[in-house]
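Section handout, structural biology tutorial.
Before the tutorial, make sure you can parse a SMILES string by hand: atoms, branches in parentheses, ring closures as digits. In the record below the ligand is NAP, and the chain has 236 residues. In the tutorial you will relate the predicted structure tokens back to the input. Do not try to memorize them.
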Amino acid sequence: MKRQQPRRPFVLVNMAMTADGKIATANRAVASFGSTRDHEHLLQLRATADAVLCGARTADLNPVQLGPGAARFRRLRLRRGLAEFNLRVIVTGNGTLAPDAEVFAHRFSPLLILTTHRARAPRLKRLRALADAVKVCGREQLDWPRALHWLHEKWGVRRLLCEGGGELNSALFAAGLVDELHLTLCPFVCGGKQAPTIADGAGVLHLAAAAQFNLVSRRRVGDELYLVYRAGSDGS
Ligand SMILES: NC(=O)c1ccc[n+]([C@@H]2O[C@H](COP(=O)([O-])OP(=O)(O)OC[C@H]3O[C@@H](n4cnc5c(N)ncnc54)[C@H](OP(=O)(O)O)[C@@H]3O)[C@@H](O)[C@H]2O)c1
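Predicted structure of the complex:
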């Protein structure tokens, strides 16, 4: 029997974290502690994805463009049959994205915003002026299956790379929608109860409810560890 095509993209999460599991300092001022090798790894992953996704706070706090980077990565994309520039997707629940955020200053590829009914009409109007498309999915929190289905059907997204932050990741893990997790373990300890981790949010109360993964690759480069996990629990 023919297998039914998935109606959502394959979802990858890629994060750099400290040895104590933080993705930024407690004041969120420093979030890039990966090496240039880690940055190359990020761009290599982007070169496999139709779209790159991030949360509102990540877009507001960082000078991110979410683009493919140098020409060699764009050529790689074209050789793989992907668009030269990946789509860029930002999530905001209440619609309060900073219009002067760096990401909006670069128009090399469509910018899509996913939001909820918490974003009232004036905010939606502002978002529509900022982005190429705005999709409202969900009342309070994003309805992820609907949002991913929309990206798949309307925008042809087959591989979606999520680049955090912790609140966004947490929602995807909780919905069981993370297929692959790429972690770069960096040789720093930042500490701080308020420092974000790769999955914040409410968290689970029982291990049985945790998102489960198998470690499929591990590589040491210098003082960094590059880990790849795939969703599943086969114990291998
Ligand atoms: N080390 C790394 O690899 C890495 C990567 C990325 C980010 N970071 C750092 O992580 C920090 C940001 O992480 P964060 O957890 O504070 O914020 P975040 O996940 O980037 O963004 C959180 C915001 O996104 C929206 N959002 C996320 N999930 C949602 C959902 N399911 N439904 C509705 N809205 C949702 C909400 O926006 P509204 O408030 O607008 O409703 C929420 O406040 C920053 O310091 C950043 O620099 C580090």
